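Reading is simple: each integer encodes one residue's backbone shape. An example follows:

___
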Amino acid sequence: AKVEELKKMLEETGQKSGEIEATLKAKEEEVRAREESLRAEKEAEISKREAELAQRDDVIETLKRGTAELKELSALQVKNKAEEVEALIGKVRDLDERLKEKEVEADQKSNELEDVRKELSEAQTHALKADLVPTLEAKVEELKKMLEETGQKSGEIEAALKAKEEEV
């Protein structure tokens, strides 16, 4: 009976062992399928991240190129602006020089004009004197004649007065 019981127990243990084995195999398959699924998800995630990193690297590279181009363009623009400013400074200097020359010319013209005015004033004064001298001489002669006539008349009046006085 003990042997039978042990046989039964062995049989039950064999069955349970088979069930456990089948369950283990099923679990192993499940775990393997899950591992495979996780591996596929991980690989997909890694591929996705690699694509994102590659895209990010492309964006970074594009930004670097763009930044370099902008720096180059900015440097070129700065250089162009500097050249324009230098050209404008040159023009201002030229204009300043021309202005100084014009100021010197204007001063010279002003001095020449002042000299001409003085000469004109002297010439007018001289001309007036030249015009006045004959006129004044004529007036002096006229006054002399008038004085002479007045003197004669005065003499005649005096003689007449004396004659009147003697008559009286």
Remarks:
- Helices lie at 2-167.
- The chain has a mean pLDDT of 88.
